Amino acid sequence: MSPAEFQALLLSWFAEHGRKDLPWQQAISPYRVWLSEIMLQQTQVSSVIPYFLRFTERFPNLHSLAAAELDEVLLYWSGLGYYARARNLHKTARLVVADGGEFPENITELSALPGIGRSTAGAILSIACGQYQAILDGNVKRVFARFHAVRGWPGQAKVAERLWEISQRYTAPLNTGAYTQAIMDLGATLCTRSKPKCEICPVASACLALAEGLVNTLPEAKPRKALPVKQIFFLILSDPEQRILLEKRPPSGIWGGLWSLPEFAELAQLRDWCRQLGADIAGLQILPAQRHTFSHYHLDYTPVSANLINPINNVMEANSRVWYKSQQIGSLGLPTPIKRLLQF
């Protein structure tokens, strides 16, 4: 099947069956395409939609996002995970606004901005600007790995290079924005990771994986290795006014910039820290351990609750450590496990 035939079949299918009512497909702009592409990384469409709607209601454009404080941006991102995405969004918004307020329309300059790689830049420029640019997000990798029976894990440089070459060759030079949305939609709705709907795929007749019985094995998975386990203790400390002590995490790393509970590597460290406060601690209670899994390790955390009695001169407070009342905590950017522990 030639690229022209592929494009014609795909665009015809998209015109009749493709999704056209997603929030980011309305009032298309570089800002909205960029935001949706970042949110959709590692996240399902159904999960992204309510976040996208809330986020764009509060930050309808690049300037409103750039003018906001990072704390508020993280609040509206809280629960989506991979928080570096939100930090990069905020950083990029400020950089672009400082440089005139318009996204670069050169793919090299655009893909150099924080959090925007080659594929995201291609999506912005093709969908919002009408440029002839290829993309290679997870859905497109899966489509072309199967269509051309490309072996190997797409995260490997040689495999990725091969898939980029295929994507570039098949990208429609005209009506590229519609083609880009169509190829992403094909991967998201028909050429899915499990139970692909090959029987109604518009390009199934030329799919090598289908012909060779490889649909369920391509693309090949990343070589597996056991995830390491990190164990920590979280302190849920209440004061006589029923306020909870929270700490702001460093700007980078896991949960960067979010508010969390004081964290300790060992229970003995937690106990020592409490003893050094110069105030009385009562009702220390070790709660059942829980697990939160990141992409590269398991976090086993044990909550420990306690009450602070007779606090002395707010010795607990620091620039990154604050007492919060329960009604305030719900308005903060919190990691999902901390939300669950505090029931917000």
TrEMBL record:
<keyword id="KW-0411">Iron-sulfur</keyword>
<dbReference type="GO" id="GO:0035485">
    <property type="term" value="F:adenine/guanine mispair binding"/>
</dbReference>
<dbReference type="Pfam" id="PF00633">
    <property type="entry name" value="HHH"/>
</dbReference>
<dbReference type="InterPro" id="IPR029119">
    <property type="entry name" value="MutY_C"/>
</dbReference>
<dbReference type="InterPro" id="IPR003651">
    <property type="entry name" value="Endonuclease3_FeS-loop_motif"/>
</dbReference>
<keyword id="KW-0326">Glycosidase</keyword>
<comment type="similarity">
    <text>Belongs to the Nth/MutY family.</text>
</comment>
<keyword id="KW-0408">Iron</keyword>
<dbReference type="GO" id="GO:0006284">
    <property type="term" value="P:base-excision repair"/>
</dbReference>
<dbReference type="GO" id="GO:0034039">
    <property type="term" value="F:8-oxo-7,8-dihydroguanine DNA N-glycosylase activity"/>
</dbReference>
<keyword id="KW-0234">DNA repair</keyword>
<dbReference type="GO" id="GO:0051539">
    <property type="term" value="F:4 iron, 4 sulfur cluster binding"/>
</dbReference>
<dbReference type="InterPro" id="IPR011257">
    <property type="entry name" value="DNA_glycosylase"/>
</dbReference>
<dbReference type="GO" id="GO:0046872">
    <property type="term" value="F:metal ion binding"/>
</dbReference>
<dbReference type="Pfam" id="PF14815">
    <property type="entry name" value="NUDIX_4"/>
</dbReference>
<dbReference type="Pfam" id="PF00730">
    <property type="entry name" value="HhH-GPD"/>
</dbReference>
<protein>
    <recommendedName>
        <fullName>Adenine DNA glycosylase</fullName>
        <ecNumber>3.2.2.31</ecNumber>
    </recommendedName>
</protein>
<dbReference type="GO" id="GO:0032357">
    <property type="term" value="F:oxidized purine DNA binding"/>
</dbReference>
<dbReference type="InterPro" id="IPR005760">
    <property type="entry name" value="A/G_AdeGlyc_MutY"/>
</dbReference>
<dbReference type="InterPro" id="IPR044298">
    <property type="entry name" value="MIG/MutY"/>
</dbReference>
<dbReference type="InterPro" id="IPR000445">
    <property type="entry name" value="HhH_motif"/>
</dbReference>
<dbReference type="InterPro" id="IPR004035">
    <property type="entry name" value="Endouclease-III_FeS-bd_BS"/>
</dbReference>
<dbReference type="InterPro" id="IPR004036">
    <property type="entry name" value="Endonuclease-III-like_CS2"/>
</dbReference>
<keyword id="KW-0227">DNA damage</keyword>
<keyword id="KW-0004">4Fe-4S</keyword>
<feature type="domain" description="HhH-GPD">
    <location>
        <begin position="39"/>
        <end position="189"/>
    </location>
</feature>
<comment type="function">
    <text>Adenine glycosylase active on G-A mispairs. MutY also corrects error-prone DNA synthesis past GO lesions which are due to the oxidatively damaged form of guanine: 7,8-dihydro-8-oxoguanine (8-oxo-dGTP).</text>
</comment>
<keyword id="KW-0479">Metal-binding</keyword>
<dbReference type="GO" id="GO:0000701">
    <property type="term" value="F:purine-specific mismatch base pair DNA N-glycosylase activity"/>
</dbReference>
<keyword id="KW-0378">Hydrolase</keyword>
<dbReference type="InterPro" id="IPR023170">
    <property type="entry name" value="HhH_base_excis_C"/>
</dbReference>
<dbReference type="InterPro" id="IPR015797">
    <property type="entry name" value="NUDIX_hydrolase-like_dom_sf"/>
</dbReference>
<dbReference type="Pfam" id="PF10576">
    <property type="entry name" value="EndIII_4Fe-2S"/>
</dbReference>
<dbReference type="InterPro" id="IPR003265">
    <property type="entry name" value="HhH-GPD_domain"/>
</dbReference>
<dbReference type="GO" id="GO:0006298">
    <property type="term" value="P:mismatch repair"/>
</dbReference>
